[in-house]
Write a structure and sequence with these properties.
29% of the residues lie in helices and 18% in strands. By secondary structure, the protein is an alpha/beta fold. The strands form two sheets. A six-stranded parallel β-sheet has the order 1-9-8-5-2-3, with helices on one face. The two termini are 15 Å apart. The chain binds 6-phosphogluconic acid (6PG). 6-phosphogluconic acid is lined by residues 38-42, 70, 82, 150-152, 156-159.
């Protein structure tokens, strides 16, 4: 489903209402709601809106369990940290309990270990076992109720950047991803984790995304070059929430 909004505020309002709707359904079904947050700058205003008087009482936050679809390889209090952004805009205002937040433990100064720890943390949460389950089918693979995603001007999503190694990872939940152009390791969900979600919402705003978005939604299928193109939840709903300037090149 693609929805184009006249402005960013209306996009965030719709996104917050969809977040609440998905949360209610998940809690009704499983008595909990698992969500992987997006990083970067776009989602910050959605998080602030969810923590505002307008929405904060619409969800029982004790039943919400927060994860991160990707993270920078920096400490959790670094200005670049996706966790820090969520902590300031969502967790602190809502007084979310630590046991409801599962962040990448990036204080460990080794990206591979951070990723292994996070993989095990997610398995343990979803399957109750602290072990790798390299399952072939997705029946026992962790399924998030909602995964929020942004998209970069180059068509990357989470930290799945064009022509990077993690695009090929099809067994694990998370991966370390060396991003040459940023000269750094990033930590990211894999397509397998993303596409196993029950719901995926893309939040896309700003003129800088227009070019990539046109290629992704209307161009030929080349996910190596435009990684967001390979986001297709096989058993879930996909929502592209797009602000008008980002949609300006679409037919
Ligand atoms: C990150 C994000 C990344 C982000 C895009 C868009 O860690 O940076 O997960 O995928 O969503 O880069 O970023 P903006 O929202 O800042 O444009």
């Amino acid at each position: 489903m693609i929805k184009i909004f006249p402005n960013f505020d209306e996009l965030n309002l719709f996104a917050a209402e969809k977040f609440v709707e998905i949360a209610h359904k998940a809690v009704e079904k499983d008595r909990r709601f698992t969500v992987a947050l997006a990083g970067g700058s776009t989602p910050k205003s959605l998080y602030q809106l969810l923590a505002s008087d307008k929405f904060k009482n619409q969800i029982d936050w004790t039943k919400v369990f927060f994860f991160f679809g990707d993270e920078r390889n920096v400490s959790p209090d670094d200005a670049e940290s996706n966790y820090r952004m969520a902590q300031e805009s969502l967790f602190a205002p809502l007084k979310i309990a630590d046991e409801n937040i599962f962040r990448w433990k990036t204080e460990v100064k080794n990206a591979e270990i951070i990723a292994v720890n996070y993989e095990l943390t997610i398995w343990k949460f979803f399957e109750g076992k602290e072990e790798f389950i390299v399952s072939t089918d997705d029946s026992d693979f962790p399924r998030f109720d909602l995964i929020l995603l942004g998209m970069g001007a180059d068509g990357h999503t989470a930290s799945l950047f064009p022509f990077t190694q993690a695009l090929e990872e099809n067994k694990k939940i998370v991966a370390v991803n060396w991003v040459e152009k940023l000269n750094t390791n990033r930590l990211t969900f894999t397509y397998r984790a993303i596409n196993n979600a029950s719901n995926i919402i893309f939040l896309i705003s700003g003129e800088s995304k227009a070019e990539a978005l046109k290629k992704i939604l209307e161009g030929e299928y080349q996910p190596e070059k435009y990684p967001a193109q390979a986001v297709k939840p096989h058993g879930g709903n996909l929502f592209w929430l797009i602000e008008r300037r980002a949609a300006q090149l679409l037919n």
